[in-house]
Please model this.
Amino acid sequence: MPRFYVLNKLDRENVSFDKVYQELRERFGKKLTIAHIPLESGVNFYSVVDILRKKMYTYAHDGSGKVTEEDIPENIAGRVDELRNELIESVAESDDELLEKYFEAGELTEEELISGFKNAIKTQMVVPIVCASASNNVGISNLIDFIVTYLPTPNEMPPIQSEDGKERNSSDNEALSALVFKTVAEAHVGELSYVRVFSGVLKPGAEALNPNQDKTERIGQMFVLNGKHKKNVDSLHAGDIGALVKLKTTHTGDTLCSKGDSFKISPIEFPEPLISIAVLPQTKGDEDKIATGLHILHEEDPTFIANYNPELKQTIVSGQGELHLNIILKRLSQRF
Model:
């Protein structure tokens, strides 16, 4: 799966882009390549430098996302050239033909560089890093532009495979295959199942097979999402991401496919919990409320589990770390 990293929250005090990059590089290796850098990290983070384009983009301080394109300041021009050469070398090394051209000419044309960069991301030979501050709306336009320009479209990707080795292309003409990758409970709406359609077309009123549960689901209302805004649609096509309302037996990690043509996508592998705590009710009447709340939260976040221990007579919640458990408890107290 092609991927890239977004270093968010670069507006935080004392944060260091270079330090975080080095830590990532030590962990994930030489494939990591810098595509954007901040002019400054920390509270003065308002400018993003695009290494390929050799341009700087300065954002308004009011969070509006308004951006101005500028030339790169002279004091960082040397570093930008150095990073750009490193990026070009990484792209060239990802393709034998490009590498030969690079050795012969000492450079790549703009067209070769862009197409080579796209292909290197697609084949996972290069994993780019970009930077942003979501809370201050800094770098978001560059992030969206990066996704549109360099990441592969669904029909440029290899076919999706089922657990038993069957394949389907990203096409509306193929049989349905879709994966539920997230579940969220919303007030006044109910349970929303976020789904990625890999092949075929999903429509309200249609019946789909859930091979994980061996049950049939009737598809109801569906949305496409833009932040908190939901837009009703009458179909989801191959490559689309949307949300389905009130599925009865389908959970995060389950597949939806055409009836009579079972196609089970490998479910998402979640990490095993690392630490556990006991959750105690403040009053006796809170026990059912806690159990219901934890069940709903687990549907939204399967990386934690909650079980009642009859020997201890306590509800044990296990998660990925202290911060993770604190977030779960905060959501539990706020929502339930």
Remarks:
- The helical segments are 17-28, 74-93, 96-105, 110-122, 140-150, 286-300, 322-335.
- The domain at 168-258 is CATH 2.40.30.10 (Elongation Factor Tu (Ef-tu); domain 3).
- The chain has a mean pLDDT of 93.
- The CA atoms of residues 194 and 335 lie 21 Å apart.
